[in-house]
Design a protein that fits this description.
This is Complex 1 LYR protein domain-containing protein. About 70% of the residues lie in helices and about 0% in strands. It contains 4 helices and no strands.
């Protein structure tokens, strides 16, 4: 999920989704009930598909870069 969320072209969508994913995993990391874990995995898989679709939509209807995105692009070496 993190790898796919990194593909968001919009800085705001990218940081929001990364933060939500990390928070959800931290919140449930101590879970031991196999049934709940199975439910969490199922929920994560469905969310992964949503993220993939949203990344494609974001690439199709790309918005102009914000000042922050432009600044980050100039600082961060291209990969």
């Amino acid at each position: 999920m993190l790898r796919e969320a990194e593909k968001f072209p919009s800085y705001m969508y990218k940081t929001y989704s990364l933060r939500k994913i990390k928070d959800a995993f931290k919140e449930h990391k101590a879970e031991t009930d196999p049934e709940k874990i199975k439910d969490f995995i199922s929920y994560a898989k469905s969310n992964l598909e949503i993220i993939k679709r949203q990344v494609v939509i974001g690439e199709l209807y790309r918005e102009p870069e914000t000042i922050l995105e432009n600044h980050l692009r100039l600082i961060k070496p291209s990969q």
